[in-house]
């Protein structure tokens, strides 16, 4: 059983590595289109390079904002799709993805745990952002406010009907 799970985690890690490599190649191609050399990104972060060429700083800020936008679109669509598929059981999908992400990171950085801290923090942040404080929960609560009010109104009507029946039964029993 141990050997089966070790092979399973190795294949899972290799599959995620292939997926991440594909995303990285698409991202580097996009950066190349923008005129940013993706093979030497550390060059763009040096203060001397930014001081010599201020347009590089603008390109770098634009690339960072573009990366943030793509990441937020991807995560938003992905978790919206999961929320639509799983409905009330969305928490199971969140826990499963969180667990698989942690397994991937811990397996990937098995020999070097210091480098696993930042990716684990990112995974935990995404986990909490998709929880009750996330966009999906707030959006659904705002759009269904009228439905919640109608539901509360119908519950009050039912309680009034039951209360009137209980009072009538009490009156009948006291008359007898």
TrEMBL record:
The keyword Amino-acid biosynthesis does not apply. It holds the Pfam family BRI3BP. It comes from the Eukaryota. The chain crosses the membrane at residues 57-82, 89-109, 115-137. Coiled coil: none annotated. GO terms for cellular component: mitochondrion. Keywords: Membrane, Transmembrane, Transmembrane helix. This is BRI3B protein. It comes from Scytalopus superciliaris. The gene is Bri3bp.
